[in-house]
UniProtKB/TrEMBL annotation:
Its cofactor is Co(2+); Zn(2+); Mn(2+); Fe(2+). It comes from Streptomyces plumbiresistens. This is Methionine aminopeptidase. It catalyses: Release of N-terminal amino acids, preferentially methionine, from peptides and arylamides. GO terms for molecular function: aminopeptidase activity.
């Protein structure tokens, strides 16, 4: 069931989204060569604690997971696409890092992700991240009353495919509200004019996930969480929580 949020509820979700934005900003500022992924997780955790917010990631165990998720961020490096578990791995010069973070505040959830390069970037990585951000912007632009979920999916997928990148077929965005994952699912590729109609009060987490090698295949790492590219190419993941309103899309996790 798709829940329509009131304007007051959307304002409350904005507050949760701002905590997420601050956490991601702090992680990005702390990320440097030699810093461990566990240290970045603690940076984000400190921001959540200071705001009195909880983490929808910590202890999360969906049906596909064999163990609960052990951190407040997903930290995916290089060929890891999403759901990377923070470890003692220390960042190296040129690493492509994707950080996904959520927050729960006042009974509402926010969810967002960024990708960036530590140290000296490879041009190919910068193109990949820039395309992911353009795909997200295109999806947000399509998130207007009167459109359908397929219009968002088509907008995101068109940008990704035109650049020659692969897309994970079974993962995409989602509704969000009282819980981090709600209906409806939002694919990163689809046909325009299809799917659930967009109405004022819907709140969606839009999250393009791009694979540099151009293939769509991925596999699960032995940790039971991290999803990695089959061809070993790098990946980027960006995300915003967006409210659909009569006045246009409202980015609740804007940084």
């Amino acid at each position: 069931m798709v829940e329509l949020k009131t304007d007051t509820s959307i304002d409350a979700m904005y507050e949760a989204g701002q905590v997420v934005g601050r956490a991601l900003t702090a992680v990005r500022q702390a990320a440097d060569v030699g810093v461990s992924l566990l240290e970045l997780d603690e940076v984000a955790h400190d921001v959540l604690r200071a705001a009195g917010a909880g983490s929808p990631f910590l202890g999360y165990r969906p049906s596909f997971a064999t163990t609960p998720f052990p951190a407040v961020i997903c930290a995916s490096v290089n060929d890891a696409i999403v759901h990377g578990i923070p470890t003692a791995y220390r960042l190296r010069d040129g690493d492509l890092v994707s950080i996904d973070c959520g927050a729960e505040l006042g009974g509402w959830a926010g969810d967002s992700a960024i990708s960036f390069v530590v140290g000296r970037p490879r041009p190919a990585d910068l193109r990949l991240i820039e395309t992911a951000e353009r795909a997200l912007a295109a999806g947000i632009e399509a998130a207007v009353v009167g459109n359908r979920i397929g219009d968002i999916a088509h907008a995101i997928g068109t940008v990704c495919r035109a650049a020659g990148y692969g897309i994970m077929a079974d993962f995409g965005g989602h509704g969000i509200g009282r819980r981090m994952h709600e209906d409806p699912p939002v694919p990163n590729e689809g046909r325009p004019g299809r799917g659930f109609p967009l109405r004022h009060g819907m709140v969606l987490a839009l999250e393009p996930m791009l694979i540099d090698g151009g293939m769509d295949g991925y596999h699960e790492a032995p940790d039971g969480w991290t999803l990695k590219t089959n061809d070993g190419s790098r990946a980027a993941h960006v995300e915003h929580t967006v409210a659909i309103t009569d006045a246009g899309p409202r980015i609740l996790t804007a940084r």
